[in-house]
Write a structure and sequence with these properties.
Structural class: alpha/beta
Helix content: 40-55%
CATH class of the largest domain: Alpha Beta
CATH architecture of the largest domain: 3-Layer(aba) Sandwich
Mean pLDDT: 95
Number of domains: 2
Distance between the termini: 51 Å
Number of strands: 13
Bound molecules: pyridoxal-5'-phosphate
Strand content: 15-25%
Number of helices: 14
Order of helices and strands: HHEHHEHEHEHEHEHEEHHHEEHEEEH
Strand order of the largest sheet: 2-8-7-6-5-3-4
Length: 374
């Protein structure tokens, strides 16, 4: 029976998927929720760059109000194309709502872009280290991925991308600020990339824009090949609801709309995101707190002569010679971070999501104990 299934799976599965491994989501979530941890301290979940605090109370109120006042909120499909939310996003981003598509997380935006623009064997350039889930979307289109490993992953340098660009390059994926390094390319560098790669789609993933405060959105007026993606999963604290968006010119939007599922963003996610934008100050206060805590974190590690790298996002990278021992001691203190040493050019590195000041003080106290043991 099992053999028969394997034959059927092989016969029916797209040949594009032959070399594709499932994206491996290594998260401490289950461990934390199952409660089988080695100590009683509250868990510090600092592994996925989520907000460490819940969203504004205005979000919860908006959902509760909508549930109370709209009988059909759950049994009807959501508002198609997230019209109301796009109006608010137009105001937030300073762009027209015709240039915005709301998606089921920014992952969905990245997948949509790959579906619309990639054909088998199209060349895709991806500077690495990067957000690896994108590789799954591009690989599932049977694209030829060219992963560019810079000698210095902490240099804000587009030279390695330009050196690998060919007339066959169809798409370039750049996370800005980058995940996991926190390195930011400036607007001029992205403009150069869009100019030199005018035959390619250039995706700039601004998942962490709210922390850097730097965007390339004004370049949409100059470059018809630019697409920017954003998310509500990070600074806005809505990762559990799955909502993000992309911005590009109306010509590319019309191509993307051929495949976009207009009902894939849930009603609750749309309501929550709109309420979050209405209480933008809450998000801004959190971002400011995180930025202040970043300085305290960098200072802490540097005083201990442990290499810690500044970042334009809500995480920092730290390098330690006894990484596995360190990570296991951190877990004993219920601190969960992300091992990034799996990237060839990041030996001994782990990434810590930054938190608010109360959690940061707690983290630093526990780290004192951890470091004494390592
Ligand atoms: C760079 C980057 N892009 C996209 C995503 C996915 O975001 P979303 O939750 O909106 O799908 C992440 C999540 O970690 C990310 O780091």
């Amino acid at each position: 029976m099992r053999e028969h299934n394997i034959t059927v799976e092989k016969r029916l599965t797209s040949s594009f998927l032959e070399n594709l491994e499932p994206y491996s989501p290594i998260s401490s979530r289950d461990k934390i929720l199952q409660g089988n941890m080695t100590c009683d301290l509250p868990p510090l979940k600092l592994d996925w760059n989520e907000s460490t605090l819940p969203p504004s109370v205005a979000v919860k109120n908006a959902i509760v109000d909508a549930m109370a006042n709209n009988q059909n909120l759950l049994n009807w499909y959501p508002e198609l194309y997230s019209k109301e939310l796009r109006r608010k996003l137009a105001n937030y981003t300073g762009r027209s709502s015709d240039e915005i598509l709301v998606t089921n997380g920014s992952d969905d935006a990245l997948d949509l872009i790959c579906k619309v623009f990639l054909e088998p064997h199209d060349q895709v350039l991806i500077p690495s280290p990067t957000y690896t889930h994108f590789l799954t979307y591009a690989t599932s289109r049977n694209a030829d991925l060219k992963i560019i490993e810079a000698d210095d992953p902490f240099a804000a340098d587009i030279t390695p991308i330009l050196q690998n660009l060919t007339p066959a390059t169809k798409l370039i994926y750049v996370v800005n600020p980058n995940n996991p390094t926190g390195v930011l390319l400036d607007r001029q560098q992205v403009a150069t990339l869009c100019t030199v790669a005018s035959h390619s789609i250039v995706i700039i993933d601004e998942a962490y824009f709210e922390f850097s405060g730097k965007t390339v959105l004004p370049l949409l007026d100059e470059f018809p090949n630019l697409i920017v993606t954003r998310t509500f999963s990070k600074a806005w604290a809505l990762a559990g609801l799955r909502i993000g968006y992309l911005l590009t010119n109306v010509e590319l939007i019309s191509q993307l709309m051929k495949v976009l599922n207009p009902k894939s963003v849930s009603s609750l996610a749309q309501i929550a995101a709109a309420a979050a934008i209405d209480d933008k100050q809450y998000m801004e206060k959190y971002v400011q707190d995180v930025k202040n805590c970043k300085l305290a974190m960098l200072d802490f590690f540097r005083k201990k002569e442990i290499k810690a790298y500044d970042s334009q996002a809500n995480y920092i990278m730290v390098q330690h010679p006894r990484l596995q021992k360190l990570l296991s001691e951190m877990e004993k203190e219920n601190i969960f971070v992300r091992d990034r040493s799996t990237f060839k050019n990041l030996p001994g590195f782990f990434r810590i999501t930054l938190a608010d000041h109360t959690q940061t003080n707690d983290f630093l106290e526990r780290m004192e104990k951890v470091l004494d043991k390592v």
